[in-house]
Design a protein that fits this description.
The complex is a heterodimer of chains A (335) and B (498). With 335 residues, chain A is mainly alpha-helical. Chain A contains 13 helices and two strands; from the N terminus they run αααααααβαααβααα. Chain B is α/β, with parallel strands linked by helices. Chain B has two domains: 4-238, Rossmann fold; 258-493, P-loop containing nucleotide triphosphate hydrolases (Rossmann fold), CATH 3.40.50. In chain B, strand 7 and strand 8 (112-113) form a beta hairpin. The chains are: A mainly alpha (335), B alpha/beta (498). Chain A binds chain B through residues 198, 202-204, 207-208, 210-211, 214-215, 217-225, 281-282, and chain B through 302, 304, 323-325, 327-329, 334, 336, 341-348, 352, 356-357, 359-360, 363, 366-368, 370, 410, 414.
């Protein structure tokens, strides 16, 4: 008992260090985990440390990163969104089909993808805030709607986006992901993360979203229109999901109707791992970024170790439970 | 007097920012009614929560029936024979009386719940207590008094050896209180230990054998009831604190304008045709029993709950208030009795809480101007003498009194002229209590107008310029402070109840 007490005291001391305080104790640990994972995978898998592998991990980071950023806003309100993966696929399918089969210019197709994401966000947000339907139910329903709409639109055919040298169909958009081996996508993702960080910490919407996630009634009784700001959180999420779709097809080309669910868990795991609390009120964009890198590296690592894709699902599932459990325990200890 | 059934010794408990219990002693004998007294925030409830396992004590020992015990939840305490009859009743309104009494330990017949047996058992319990309640009635259809009787029946059915009554009379009429006392005497005769928590001095003299007084989380002393006077108890409760002088006449200028006028307000079942006026610089007290509809009136007026009908005038102009947003726009601020749920965002900083209602004044472009925010927060920390290391402190780490100051700051930052204080000193320790009183008097003197809902008679008489009394959702009286007495207020507060 005494020894345990002493150890906790040391942790407190480390946490008070100004540099640690600035970066966040949690985030420093996550960063160490990330490096450690990279080292372990490099030791276990010959050739893992190469540049090709890093680019492959980054491809995963881009789309998952945007999903995770989006869902961070929703979880900050104390809500949840299980539709992000399928909505991302819906965006990619409808805009891809419009471009490849209906002849829509690429730039419009990209905008269409974002607009579809936005519409789903508005839909989810409106039902959650103005109709008070539980977020769990709303997002489960819109997940099915997204899958159904995409399948109807594409006549249940998979859609392949143009390759880079397919200039006729506008393959130029792939330069957004990587141009001559330079990871443009990483720059765009990090820029988006900075915008989200400012939005969450330095603007009125961010302040209200975090406060209402912590105590909705108190914020409402302070004369704040909580419904409006809650809906906005889902809408921001929708926009980011629409952008995620662009990076998904930018990296993986082909999308099939009826899928996308697995990315829900991965995005939520990345976000909660980063220190965003499932009960709302606390969110960290920096943490979300690190969480996304960890999840992406893990997915790549599992495949590189020679396991099947199913193992990825099992591992991610377990991670979600462990991470959320840790969040619950941390909260209980504080109280 | 019987042997000792409960002995709590040297109980110590701290929360962040508060030393809630400071080495407290408390003991109860078999066949004794032992009063636990103290002002709001003295630590009575905390002590009982430590006893029944809701909180874990930091140190000290609890001896129950000769054994050292430490309960981890109320279930364990119940199983040992310690039961609380709560002030706020823990009943499921849509279940029947019998179902409520046996909730969590239903009689079973195979896989089916045996409702018939539960009804029989309930009837037997009621017979034992000599009360008449239909076990098949829905709980929500009973009066508060009857609901309380059901709580007691439930307690006895647990085979209780020690029953704690937590302000049982707060919502009862004179007649119901008499019925309650008959039951309590009966239980005492059966050699049970009884803890009786109450603010009402008269009851203490009538029903209890001994009195233990707490103050500021500390143990003050224990007296034999029949050997002491009311004044002895009051002196022990109040101690060194010198309170604001009670008002003997209204401090409001005779020509002060009416800032808020409410006419024929109706909302839900709890607010029936309420009309009143509030004048500039006035503290208007709202008195009544628990459940009289005072909080409901305030919430309807503030737009927190929907209203059925009624007109509201602010500074002579008719206004429409359908949401807190509207109310705040007209300069009305509401300070809830339940600060943690409705007043503050506990996991956020003092700064974030202080500017919550007025954030638009602290923006530069689309960005929050954090230095301006901090400046105004620091200004109010100084002005209200909020005890905190700095403005970044999370509100969860502050004591009740300081949390209340943060809520006051929130409305002052928003520049609200009409403030509704709902139980302003609930959960606030004695020292800080007078600070809140001083603050309220100062605000009134500076021209703010205050509605103060309070269940503490002393608080009503000490602070109000004028008193509105409510009973069962209706306004039953309005008295100037010069004419107000405790008896007059109680009479009006129970007028509608037979």
């Amino acid at each position: 008992m005494q020894a345990l007490h002493g150890r906790e005291g040391n942790v407190e001391k480390i946490k008070e260090n100004p540099i640690v305080k600035k970066l966040g104790f949690n985030r420093i640990i996550l960063f160490c985990v990330l490096i450690l994972m990279y080292v372990v995978f490099s030791l276990l898998v010959p050739g893992f440390a190469g540049m090709a592998r890093i680019m492959s991990v980054l491809n995963y980071v881009y789309f998952l990163g945007f999903l995770s950023l989006g869902v961070t806003f929703v979880i900050a309100t104390g809500g949840i969104d299980f539709s992000i993966g399928p909505v991302m696929f819906c965006c990619a399918l409808i805009s891809g089909y419009s471009m490849m089969t209906l002849g829509m210019p690429t730039i419009l197709a990209l905008i269409l993808s974002i607009v579809i994401g936005l519409l789903f966000g508005l839909f989810n947000g409106y039902l959650v805030s103005y109709w008070s339907v539980p977020p769990f139910i709303v997002s489960m329903a819109s997940m099915n709607i997204a899958k159904g709409v995409a399948a109807v639109f594409t006549k249940t055919q998979s859609v392949s986006w143009p390759l880079k040298d397919d200039i006729e169909h506008g393959g130029w958009f792939r330069n957004l992901v990587s141009a001559n081996g330079f990871p443009v996508g990483l720059i765009i993702f990090l820029a988006a993360a900075v915008v989200c960080m400012i939005l969450l910490n330095n603007t009125k919407p961010g302040r209200y979203i975090l406060c209402l996630g912590s105590n909705r009634e108190a914020v409402r009784l302070s004369g704040v229109n909580t419904k409006k700001w809650e809906m906005l959180a889902y809408t921001i999420c929708g926009i980011l999901v629409g952008i995620a779709a662009i990076f998904f097809v930018g990296a993986y080309t082909t999308v099939q109707p009826g899928y996308g669910d697995q990315y829900n868990n991965e995005a939520i795991a990345g976000c909660v791992m980063g220190g965003t609390s499932m009960v709302g009120g606390l969110a960290s964009i920096g943490g979300t970024i690190l969480g996304v890198f960890i999840i992406s590296l893990l997915q790549e690592g599992i495949l590189a170790l020679g396991f099947a894709k199913d193992i990825q699902l099992i591992v991610t599932g377990i991670i979600v439970i462990v991470v959320v459990y840790a969040d619950v325990m941390a909260r209980r200890r504080k109280n | 007097m019987g042997e000792c059934i409960l002995k709590m010794e040297d109980i110590d408990k701290s929360f962040p920012g508060v030393h809630a219990l400071d080495h407290v002693h408390f003991d109860v004998n078999k066949g004794e009614v032992h009063a636990l007294m103290g002002e709001n925030g003295a630590g009575k409830s905390t002590l009982m929560k430590v006893l029944t396992g809701i909180y874990t004590k930091d140190s000290g020992s609890i001896n129950f029936e000769g054994r050292e015990v430490e309960f981890h939840n109320t279930r364990e305490a119940q199983d040992a024979g310690i039961v609380i009859v709560h002030q706020e009743l823990n009943m499921v309104g849509d279940l029947t009386v019998a179902q409520n009494i046996f909730i969590g330990r239903e009689f079973m017949k195979g896989f089916k719940i045996d409702d018939k047996k539960m009804i029989e058992e309930s009837n037997r319990l009621f017979a034992e207590l000599k009360i008449e309640i239909d076990p098949k009635a829905k709980m929500k259809d009973l009066t508060v008094g009857k609901q309380q009787m059901c709580e007691i029946a439930k307690a006895i059915s647990h085979d209780a050896k020690l029953i704690i009554f937590d302000e049982p009379s707060a919502a009862l009429t004179e007649k119901e209180i008499e019925d309650l006392f008959v039951i309590i005497r009966d239980l005492r005769a059966k050699n049970l230990g009884i803890v009786y928590i109450s603010h009402r001095m008269d009851e203490i003299k009538v029903i209890t054998d001994r009195v233990t007084v707490m103050r500021d989380g500390g143990y003050v002393g224990t007296l034999i009831t029949k050997d002491c006077t009311k004044e002895d108890i009051i002196n022990m409760m109040v101690g060194r604190v010198i309170y604001e002088e009670p008002k003997t006449k209204s401090q409001v200028a005779p020509d002060a304008p009416v800032v808020l006028k409410v006419e024929h307000l109706n909302a839900g079942r709890m607010v029936k045709d309420v009309s009143f006026e509030l004048r500039k610089g006035e503290i208007l007290g709202f008195s009544g029993l628990m459940g009289a509809g005072r909080t409901e009136t305030a919430r309807a007026l503030f737009g927190a709950d929907p209203k059925t009908s009624g007109d509201i005038y602010v500074n002579g102009e008719k206004v429409t208030i359908n949401s807190p947003q509207d109310a705040v726009k007209y300069g009305i601020g509401y300070l809830s009795e339940d600060r943690k749920r409705y007043g503050i965002v506990v996991q956020k900083s003092i700064t974030e809480n202080s500017t919550l209602a007025a954030l638009e004044n602290y923006m530069s472009g689309i960005f929050i101007n954090k230095s301006a925010e901090k400046k105004v927060t620091n200004q109010y920390i100084k002005e209200l003498a909020t005890k905190t290391p700095n403005a970044d402190q999370l509100v969860v780490n502050l004591s009740g009194g300081n949390q209340q100051k943060v809520v006051i700051a929130k409305w002052l930052v928003r520049n609200c002229d009409i403030l509704i204080f709902d139980e302003p000193t609930r959960g606030i320790d004695v020292g800080a209590k007078n600070e809140i009183y001083k603050l309220m008097n100062r605000l009134a003197a500076e021209g703010k107008s205050i509605i103060m809902i309070s269940s503490e008679m002393t608080e009503i008489l000490r602070m109000s310029d004028r008193i509105v009394i409510m009973c069962e959702g209706e306004k039953t009286g309005e008295i100037d402070i010069a004419e107000a007495t405790q008896e007059l207020i109680m009479d009006k507060a129970t007028r509608n109840i037979e």
